[in-house]
């Protein structure tokens, strides 16, 4: 039976919950931050290096440690400052390669989000259809129970035989089994949807709200193809992957120097 006091969620709420609670999407979001950190590392300039050393230290002659003449005349000191100059715009090319890698990761995250939203919508529609089937099965069962009651009255009045009444009563078991099957299908569909949304995001006795009626969609094949080519994240992943490969392989060739 349906619970009228249970919390009802719409498909928009389900999509929001799946986007917010899906662990795969949460993990993929950290990949973007990691790539952003790689951009910072790729754009870092080298620091100057200050070096100092000394030769002929009297490590094995402790008596010379107090000899000021030895320290002033025999020990040699060297102090130097070094700085790495990167030629051929190496740093700029490293930064470009890191940015293209970030772009690929962002497209991959968008594709993962698209998959999660599509699966959530399918599970929500399955739960909504299971709910509608249960309502339909219960209405049929309630209608048939009226037929059974009417047949029982006719049997008591003598206008129906006991065998005919028994056949009608046995047929009601089929309607009752249909209700039980519909209840099981609804429970499975809602459990699958709740698992995808996060068990803590919705209560166990929640309901799905929506209209399962068919709504025709008017679209042309060319328009759908154009929208798919422009918006499909997996296609963007492939295109950005080519750009990233070219940026990582091509810039050492342009500079004529190794990384």
Q: Largest sheet, order of strands side by side?
A: 1-4
Major sheet details: 2 strands, parallel
Reported CATH architecture: Up-down Bundle
Number of strands: 4
Number of domains: 1
Which value, in Å, is the CA radius of gyration? 37 Å
Tally of helical runs: 7
> What's the CATH class label?
Mainly Alpha
Low-confidence stretches: 252-259
The proportion of residues forming helix, as a percent range, comes to: 55-70%
The secondary structure category is mainly alpha
Shape descriptor reads elongated
Distance between the termini: 68 Å
**Which fold name corresponds to the CATH topology?**
Outer membrane efflux proteins (OEP)
* CATH H-level superfamily title: Outer membrane efflux proteins (OEP)
Question: Which key terms come to mind for this protein?
Answer:
single chain, 259 residues, mainly alpha, Outer membrane efflux proteins (OEP), two-stranded parallel sheet, two-stranded antiparallel ribbon, 4 strands, 68% helix, disordered C terminus
What does this structure look like?
It is a single chain. A two-stranded parallel ribbon has the order 1-4. Strands 2-3 form a two-stranded antiparallel sheet. Helices cover 68% and strands 7% of the residues. It contains seven helices and four strands, in the order βααβαβααβαα. The chain is mainly α and 259 residues long. It is elongated. It starts with 7 loop residues before the first strand and ends with a helix. The protein has helices at 11-21, 23-42, 68-73, 90-157, 162-197, 221-231, 233-255; strands spanning 8-9, 49-55, 76-82, 207-208.
């Amino acid at each position: 039976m349906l619970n009228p006091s249970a919390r009802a969620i719409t498909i928009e709420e389900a999509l929001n919950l799946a986007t917010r609670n899906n662990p795969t999407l949460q993990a993929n979001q950290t990949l973007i931050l990691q790539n952003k950190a790689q951009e910072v590392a790729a754009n870092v300039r080298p620091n100057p290096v200050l070096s100092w050393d000394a030769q002929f230290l009297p490590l094995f002659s402790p008596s010379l440690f107090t000899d000021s003449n030895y320290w002033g005349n025999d020990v040699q000191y060297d102090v130097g400052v070094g700085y790495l100059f990167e030629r051929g715009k190496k740093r700029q090319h490293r930064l470009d390669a890191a940015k293209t890698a970030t772009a690929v990761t962002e497209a991959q995250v968008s594709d993962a989000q698209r998959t999660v939203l599509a699966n959530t919508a399918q599970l929500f529609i399955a739960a909504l259809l299971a709910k509608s089937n249960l309502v339909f099965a219960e209405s049929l069962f309630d209608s048939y129970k009226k037929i059974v009651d009417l047949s029982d009255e006719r049997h008591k009045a003598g206008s129906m035989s006991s065998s005919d009444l028994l056949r009608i009563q046995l047929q009601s078991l089929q309607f009752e089994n249909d209700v039980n099957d519909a209840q099981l299908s609804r429970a499975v569909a809602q459990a699958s949807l709740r698992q995808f949304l996060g068990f803590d995001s919705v209560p166990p006795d929640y309901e799905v709200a929506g209209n399962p009626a068919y709504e025709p969609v008017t679209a042309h094949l060319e328009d759908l193809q154009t929208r798919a080519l422009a918006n499909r994240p997996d296609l963007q992943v492939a295109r950005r992957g080519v750009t990233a490969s070219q940026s990582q392989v091509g810039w050492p060739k342009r500079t004529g120097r190794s990384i």
